[in-house]
Amino acid sequence: MNLCADMAIEHLVAHAKAGADLLEARDPWAERLAPDEYERFVLPSTKRLFAGLHGTGAATLYSAQGTSHLSAQMCLAGADVVGVDWRVPLEDMHARFPLQRLAGNLDPTLLLAPEGLLRQETRWMLE
Per-block average pLDDT, block size 10, for the chain (127 residues)? Predict the structure, then answer.
């Protein structure tokens, strides 16, 4: 896992040097882990990743779908912003982690909805 983190650091630092303002790390497998498994096997390397990206001048975003059960650990990973799955009530995340900057939370199926509904839901989410 540390090797993967080191490779991701090198890759994302190159993006920052090329002018990226935001560096995102996605974890497509995190939802399959129990909180203790995530904390033991993934969180140390994820912390290593974000520590390696500090100082690049770019903001960092950490996101994974289906991870409401890992919210506390994800907020400890060291990213500037944590992505919130659309199935997690945004107000709950904000209440639990008031100092954490959050992103996401819009149901992707709304992209197929009429524009008025999409705008309405987006405004509600931002409020």
Answer: 96 98 94 95 96 97 90 93 87 87 89 95 87
For residue 79, give both structure tokens. 């990213």
Taking the C-alpha atoms of residue 94 and residue 57, their distance in angstroms, rounded to an integer, is 26
Longest dimension (CA), the chain: 46
Q: What confidence score (pLDDT) does residue 12 get?
A: 98
* pLDDT in the model for residue 125: 83
Q: Which residues pair with 24 in a beta bridge?
A: 61
pTM (two decimals):
0.87
3-state secondary structure the chain: CHHHHHHHHHHHHHHHHCCCCEEEEECCCHHHCCHHHHHHHHHHHHHHHHHHHCCCCCEEEEECCCCHHHHHHHHCCCCCEEEECCCCCHHHHHHHCCCCEEEECCCHHHHHCCHHHHHHHHHHHHC
CA distance 24 to 60: 6
Instruction: Give the amino acid at 88.
Output: V
Distance of CA 46 to the CA centre of its chain: 11
